[in-house]
């Protein structure tokens, strides 16, 4: 594991640089400090840490708030960035560290922490100071890879956040990983189709939207499929998808009716 000893109050940038470097992404603690360190807080907040990871090309996913999830991530080869409160409730001392190993028989955990390349903490001590910080932990991985223990909702949330700063090709990789693990996730299927459309990979987008439309009978997916087929020059296929979108919207998803009807009207006008 890489090691970046922190400078004063910069445990957040140092810890973030550690997990980024571990997966081969840009990891300059000085640059990260400029991006995520808040002088008024003399530290980094979780939102800034998540945003900093995403701007470096990583998908940062929240992990379940239980020690077993963290141990399973380490066993899978994923370093885990954690937030601790090493002070009191009335006078907290927030500290970011990176969990890199454990010894179950000895009930010890190993961290890259502050200026220590190898900090050893008893599991009981860690659970105490971790709980006082809200049991916040994330895994930081390149698009296309997911944490071993990530929950479906957390994976979707992480990918949505990544999409705010990522290019369409990287975002398509991220949504593809979510969809591979949870094939029935409607949002992931739509996200993949939209990212491929923006890439632009129109044939890939058409396949993604068709898969979602067939699985969920979604008016939004049928409508996006119609628009994608139109861009590909498949007017008959586009009109068929638009008719399916309107029918679904009329009976089940009325919020999509204006968009679906507009798509169908445009196709009919083109035919005329």
How does this structure look, described?
With 272 residues, the chain is of the alpha+beta class. It has two domains: 11-141, Cysteine proteinases (Cathepsin B, Chain A); 168-271, Serine Threonine Protein Phosphatase 5, Tetratricopeptide repeat. It is 54% helix and 14% strand. The protein contains twelve helices and six strands. The chain has helices at residues 11-22, 29-36, 46-55, 67-75, 123-131, 152-163, 168-181, 186-198, 202-216, 219-231, 235-251, 257-271; strands at residues 59-62, 80-85, 94-103, 108-113, 116-122, 137-141. Strands 1-6-2-3-4-5 form a six-stranded antiparallel β-sheet, sandwiched between helices. Helix 8 runs parallel beside helix 10 and helix 11 runs antiparallel to helix 12 (257-271).
Q: Tell me the strand percentage band.
A: 5-15%
The protein's oligomeric status is single chain
- Number of DSSP-assigned strands: 6
What is the overall pLDDT average? 93
Cα distance, first to last residue?
65 Å
Radius of gyration: 23 Å
Question: Structural class from helices and strands?
Answer: alpha+beta
CATH topology of the largest domain: Cathepsin B, Chain A
Give a topology summary:
Blueprint: H1 11-22, H2 29-36, H3 46-55, E1 59-62, H4 67-75, E2 80-85, E3 94-103, E4 108-113, E5 116-122, H5 123-131, E6 137-141, H6 152-163, H7 168-181, H8 186-198, H9 202-216, H10 219-231, H11 235-251, H12 257-271
Antiparallel strand pairs: 1-6, 2-3, 2-6, 3-4, 4-5
Helix pairs in contact: 1-2, 6-7, 7-8, 8-9, 8-10, 9-10, 10-11, 10-12, 11-12
């Amino acid at each position: 594991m890489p090691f970046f000893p922190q400078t004063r109050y910069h445990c957040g940038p140092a810890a973030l640089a550690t997990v980024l470097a571990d997966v081969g992404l840009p990891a300059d603690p000085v640059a990260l400090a400029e991006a995520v360190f808040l002088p008024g807080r003399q530290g980094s907040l979780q939102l800034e840490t998540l945003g900093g990871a995403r701007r470096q090309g990583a998908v940062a996913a929240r992990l379940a708030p239980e020690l077993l999830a963290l141990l399973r991530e380490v066993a899978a080869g994923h370093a885990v960035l954690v937030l601790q409160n090493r002070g009191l409730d009335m006078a907290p001392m927030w500290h970011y560290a990176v969990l890199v190993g454990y010894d179950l028989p000895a009930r010890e955990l190993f961290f890259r922490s502050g200026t220590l390349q190898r900090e050893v903490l008893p599991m009981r001590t860690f659970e105490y100071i971790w709980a006082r910080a809200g049991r916040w932990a994330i895994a930081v991985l390149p698009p296309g890879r997911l944490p071993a223990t990530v929950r479906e909702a957390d994976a979707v949330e992480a990918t949505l956040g990544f999409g705010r700063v990522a290019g369409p090709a990287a975002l398509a990789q991220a949504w593809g990983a979510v969809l591979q693990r949870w094939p029935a996730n409607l949002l992931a299927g739509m996200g993949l189709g939209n990212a491929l459309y923006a890439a632009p990979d129109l044939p890939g987008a058409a396949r993604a939207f068709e898969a979602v439309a067939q699985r969920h009978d979604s008016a939004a997916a049928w409508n996006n499929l119609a628009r994608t087929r139109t861009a590909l020059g498949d007017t008959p296929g586009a009109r068929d998808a638009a008719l399916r979108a309107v029918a679904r919207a009329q009976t089940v998803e009325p919020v999509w009716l204006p968009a679906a009807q507009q798509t169908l009207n445009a196709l009919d006008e083109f035919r005329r």
